[in-house]
Amino acid sequence: MSDFPAGRAVRRGTGRGGTTGRPGGRGEVHAPAGRCSHMAGPLAEGDIDDGCVRCPWHGSVFRLSDGRNVRGPAMSPQPSSNCRAVAGHVEARLRLRPHPRP
User: Fold this and answer.
1) CA-to-CA distance for 100 and 102, rounded, in angstroms?
2) Domain hosting residue 33, numbered range
3) Phi and psi, residue 44, nearest 5°
4) Which of 12, 75, 79, 100 reaches 20 to 30 Å from 43, CA-CA?
5) What percent of the chain has pLDDT over 70?
């Protein structure tokens, strides 16, 4: 887990290019998509504060735990993954969102 410093966003390849953030001290690992849903800003270069990542380009803020947008200009949530640490590795699986009913 030393590859994931507490309170910093880091970019790690997931086949789709994910961003992984680890909020300070709780040992949680989250993997929102690497590019902001607003205008594709690099979230791995963003600041992490209070369990959220802030896009460095336009300031959109997303919760790391579920990808929900806390503050705009982004209007859409950030795709994110369920994560777990297994034998020193992090496994990530894209979180499926239910389709809206017609």
Assistant:
1) 6
2) 9-94
3) -65, -20
4) 100
5) 65
